[in-house]
Amino acid sequence: MKTYEKIYNLVKKIPKGKVMTYGQIGQILNLNPRVVGWALNRLAKVNRKSCIVYRKKTNSKYYLRTTIHDSQIPWQRVINSKGTISTNKLMNIPLDLQKRLLEKEGVVFDKEEKIDLKKYKWREFI
Questions:
Q1: Top-tier CATH class for 3-116
Q2: Per-residue pLDDT reduced to its tens digit, 71-88
Q3: Is the pLDDT of residue 96 over 60?
Q4: Mean pLDDT throughout 12-16?
Q5: Domain segments of the chain: what residues?
Q6: DSSP calls for the chain
Q7: pLDDT at 58
Q8: How many CA atoms lie within 13 A of 57 on its CB side?
Q9: Distance between CA 15 and CA 8 in Å, rounded?
Q10: By C-alpha distance, which of 65, 77, 8, 13 is closest to 36?
């Protein structure tokens, strides 16, 4: 089985309302956490037919990725080890998309935009 397939198979097992970290997945699969991030980022293919959207903070344009939310892989359930979202740093993913998807699953963020990893981190797999 290829590396990205292993990552996708593990991420598919994360239940709604739970998260795993890039490092946690990397440790389980004996991979660098960055590889986990690259694999999840590849799920999003730029749809050239979609509208060009302007990001409010930087006023730069990007293509709205449409396939990432249609994916069978719950990419939004993977966060960084600080309990925060890293996708807001990517220019071609809508701002706060990951947060909104997690909130729909019942995950609560504090005032500092952090998730309580003691409460939401999925450990049953280990």
A1: mainly alpha
A2: 689 999 999 999 999 876
A3: yes
A4: 96
A5: 3-116
A6: --HHHHHHHHHHTSPTT-BEEHHHHHHHHT--HHHHHHHHHTT--B-TTSPEEE-TTT--EEEPB-HHHH-SS-GGGEE-TTSS-SGGG-TTS-TTHHHHHHHHTT--B-TTS-B-HHHHB--TT-
A7: 55
A8: 8
A9: 14
A10: 8
